[in-house]
Amino acid sequence: MSLRIKISEQEILERPNDAQLGSYVRAKYFTIKEINEESNVLDMGQIPDYDDYDKCVMCGKESPYKVSTHIDMRYGYESGVGQMCFTPSICEKK
């Protein structure tokens, strides 16, 4: 399986060096790959904006992590469930 990663000129210019750009592209790749594997959806139009902040799947509160942040670098992410509150013990469940 191959994936195409689209990066705008603005996204490139916002990263001042190649290391940051490489990290951004890698995070974008893993996010797209994870979404495709979990939902078996190949329609790139359904992928969230990478500059948006992820939300808690329990209460909907915005987390401190952008969608582009790899799950290994997050606190409160549950594999197979999604992003939980940054402090799960005080999640404001609806």
Describe this structure as you would to a colleague:
This protein has one domain. The chain is 29% helix and 13% strand. It contains two helices and four strands, in the order ααββββ. The strands form two sheets. It has a two-stranded antiparallel sheet with strand order 1-2. The chain has a two-stranded antiparallel sheet with strand order 3-4. The longest helix is centred in the N-terminal third of the chain and has 22 residues, at 18-39. It is globular and about 40 Å long. The N and C termini lie far apart (39 Å). The relative contact order is 0.14.
Q: How far apart are the first and last residues' alpha carbons, in Å?
A: 39 Å
Summarize the amount of helix as a percent range: 25-40%
Taken from the alpha-carbon principal axes, the silhouette is: globular
**Strand residues, percent:** 5-15%
Put simply, the count of helices is 2
- Can you count the beta strands? 4
SSE diagram, text form:
Elements: H1 9-13, H2 18-39, E1 53-55, E2 62-66, E3 77-78, E4 82-83
Antiparallel strand pairs: 1-2, 3-4
Summarize the structure.
The protein is α+β, with helices and mostly antiparallel strands and 94 residues long.
List keywords for this structure.
single chain, 94 residues, alpha+beta, two-stranded antiparallel sheet, two-stranded antiparallel ribbon, 2 helices, globular
